[in-house]
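S., here's the first fold you wanted:
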Amino acid sequence: MDLKSQINLEKLPRHIAVIMDGNGRWAKQHGKPRVFGHRNGVKSVRETTEAAAELGVEYLTLYAFSTENWNRPQFEINALMTLLVETLRKEVETLNENNIRLQAIGDLTKLPKKTYKALMEGIKATSQNTRMTLVLALNYSARWEILNAVKELAQKIDNKQLKQAEINEKTFEHALSTHGIPDPELLIRTSGETRISNFLLWQIAYAELYFTPIFWPEFRKNNLYDAIIDFQQRERRFGKTSEQLA
């Protein structure tokens, strides 16, 4: 029996988030520069996105570039940004063919002008698509997002647009960059690392975590199926007991 047929389509996670890790180490194993790993990771993005859409997943969020990644060597940052522009322009047609909408979260205005322009063009060109939403986390960090939300709410209080007593989970979530997007139910991290790395800290409060030793450039459809099958075998209690769920 193939893996895909083992997935219960009635119990799919609505939103899957992925920390795409291991490009550099994979490239090193092959005696190549880190950029070689990033370029090969594009195929994994394409396969994972198409597989998720085919199954009926509603949202897929990929951690593409964190605020901490600016600390990498400048040549690697430049190569990543160039690759991002190339990929966005090449993949827009594929996204439209698959009826996939592109969105992005993060401090986007601080991206290089060419990268920001290509991103906005891709978002606009796919805005009418309805099958699945692909969210790229770019220049993103969860701490930045949470602090930004706090500042936004504080400003509204200063402007008499909001009262302190009105702040609750709903108003706070509306100030996050993910407002309107359901929380991830499944978080996947590749490469064998078992950290969250400042990714969607508020949103993954009740997500199931799945760690795989596979480096991102080797991640394929069957690996996504494995993660979803594992997710579907877990009991999700949300603070309740097993007996209460029965």
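And the second, which I think is the more interesting of the pair:
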Amino acid sequence: MADGGIDMFTEFTPNSSNTKMLRNAFSRFATGVTIVSCDSLDGHIGMTVNSFSSISLDPALIMWAPDKKSSRFKYFEAAEYFAVHVLNSDQYQLCSEFVKNKNAFDTIAHSTSNEGVPLIDNCLARFHCRKFDMHDAGDHKIIIGKVDNALESTGNALSFYSGEFGEIKSKELGK
């Protein structure tokens, strides 16, 4: 095994015949897990997302990128306001529920912002945003939000790496 724990690698040129290999390579980047929520004519909508990132402190901007083929895409493309909830490690079941059910807010306790956006409590962080811009990006769309309100707390993060959920432990908690 080489330094850094790498014992084998495969190099390839991404194309339409090896998208699974590309997905596997992308999965080698560990991410946090979020639920993005919005209000719609069909009710409160939520989606589990790991394509989330901060962009700017001034102005306060974040981005995330839903798949255009997702049945939930139309709701977020149309939404003026949305919230991003950074999940703690105890919220795996919540994450799983939103993977299966766009209307999971019908079955979980939540509050609602003044703009009608459903809000999940007990997250590590939450960003209530107004849509700032959108950009086409292949089979996804990058949605940029201007953060109107933020919340942060301590805890261990729910993580996603190589197709598996895990936990990133916080030094703040002494764990």
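Why I say that: The chain has one domain: 32-173. Residues 92-100 form the longest helix (9 residues).

Talk tomorrow,
H.
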